[in-house]
Write a structure and sequence with these properties.
The chain is mostly helical and 278 residues long. It has 13 helices and two strands, in the order H-H-H-H-H-H-H-H-H-H-H-E-H-E-H. A two-stranded antiparallel ribbon has the order 1-2. The protein starts with 9 loop residues before the first helix and ends in a 6-residue tail after the last helix.
């Protein structure tokens, strides 16, 4: 998180960082327009490729490799919006259950706002409406509005803050309200990046396993930041791989591929001891 916000020169230069790190992206939702940001957001990068009608080979390879290794762990350990949701929800400790059908919002966001509409309009519509972007970029720039050192003009042109900004703020306020009464509602129902990473949980190198002796006491569900019942489906796409549930002795982290490989190696060693297996 500190590395993602390492550009302190914005205080004196009044412009965002445009160096080589902006050509790479972090594996979670972020905003490249945040005043102190040093990297790009994968969703913003994907929209860029859609807008210029190019296939994002490198980006999808990056996301795919990370997903195959650790599944959705970036959501549980790195995402700043996940941290905001956790902190606000802890102030109330409430967890109302939202309709499962709301998960369709993340599909709509990915297919329409991230892929299709940017492809048609050549504009980054998800970034225009993203609540995290409003929180860490939109509001800070509008509030501060320094004189751009490169152009000599205000960063936000007079009269440019209008209906779209009001809509962005309304969306942000709506989500912030939900954060107090539900566990990670944005992650569970609206995040396109979380939706993409969730597809890897069942095939990733790192997985969870629940022991047959589990008595379904609910300890894993209470510890889980998304309220997931791990004993029902330990490798569900809902799991953000924070590993808090492993505090229960019945839940453990497993790596099936490495375990099979190590078993094969041990079997080979047995065969080669003395020339034959006994």
């Amino acid at each position: 998180m500190l590395l993602a916000n390492a550009y302190m020169s914005v205080v004196s230069r009044h412009v965002i960082y445009k160096g080589p790190l902006k050509c790479t992206c972090l594996p979670f939702v972020y905003c490249h327009a945040c005043p102190s940001s040093t990297f790009s957001c994968p969703l913003g990068t994907l929209q860029h490729y859609m807008a210029v009608h190019r296939f994002p080979f490198e980006l999808l390879g990056h996301i795919g490799l990370l997903g195959l290794l650790i599944g959705r762990m970036a959501c549980g350990w790195l995402c700043p919006f996940g941290l905001v949701q956790d902190l606000l929800n802890r102030t109330t400790g409430r967890n109302i259950r939202l309709p499962r059908a709301l998960v369709g919002v993340s599909f709509i966001s990915l297919l329409l706002l991230v892929l299709l509409i940017p492809y048609i309009t050549s504009e980054h519509w998800y970034s225009k409406l993203c609540p995290l972007g409003t929180l860490v970029a939109g509001i800070p720039w509008v509030t501060w509005n320094p004189i751009n050192s490169e152009t000599g003009d205000p960063t936000i042109a007079p009269g440019s803050v209008g209906l779209l900004f009001a809509v962005k703020v309304i969306i942000l306020v709506g989500f912030l309200g939900l954060f107090f009464v539900a566990k990670r509602p944005f992650c569970r129902y609206a995040c396109p990046m979380g939706l993409v990473f969730s597809q890897f949980n069942r095939v990733s190198l790192l997985r969870l396993k629940v022991a047959p002796s589990c008595n379904r006491c609910g300890a894993c569900e209470r510890a889980c930041p998304v309220g997931h019942r791990v004993y029902e489906d330990p490798n569900s796409g809902d799991c953000v791989r924070c590993l808090q549930c492993t505090a229960c002795k019945h839940v453990e982290v497993v790596t099936p591929v490495l375990r099979r490989w190590s078993k094969a190696v041990r079997s080979e060693e047995v065969v080669h001891v003395g020339g034959t297996a006994t």
